[in-house]
Amino acid sequence: MTSTPDVSLAHESGWCLSAFGGDLVVWENPVDDSMAPGEMRDVSREEILQLFGLLAAGDITSVDELPWRR
Q1: Contact 13, 47 (CB under 8 A)
Q2: Does any domain span residue 70?
Q3: Residue 42 and residue 70: Cα distance in Å, rounded?
Q4: What is the pLDDT along the chain (70 residues), one digit of tens a residue?
Q5: H helix and E strand count, the chain
Q6: Residues spanned by the domain of 32
Q7: DSSP 45
Q8: How far is CA 21 from CA 14, 26, 35, 37, in A?
Q9: Cβ(36)–Cβ(64) below 8 Å
């Protein structure tokens, strides 16, 4: 995949969002390998903050329903 993220947030459920330089965000659950990690590119800082807010609030469904490339 890519190198070390600039920032990441992991939920107690195992889901993790990682943001990398160049506006790349990765959505994955390293605890459950039944689903491939998803990527979104060209994500703005504002969108990244919204994603992290959703995950911090435990709204896994809203994050997972986004158009991730798997």
Answers
A1: no
A2: no
A3: 16
A4: 557 889 999 999 999 999 998 789 999 999 998 989 999 999 999 999 999 999 999 999 999 999 999 9
A5: 2, 4
A6: 7-64
A7: H
A8: 23, 12, 24, 18
A9: no
pTM: 0.90
Q: Please give the order of strands across the beta sheet that includes 7-10.
A: 7-10, 16-20, 24-28, 38-40
d(CA 33, CA 53): 24
C-alpha to C-alpha distance for 68 and 27, rounded to whole angstroms: 8
User: Do the domain assignments include residue 2?
Assistant: no
Are 25 and 17 contacting, i.e. CB atoms less than 8 angstroms apart?
A: yes
- 1 domain-assigned: no
Q: Are 35 and 41 in contact (CB under 8 A)?
A: no
Residue entry with tokens 């943001």: 19
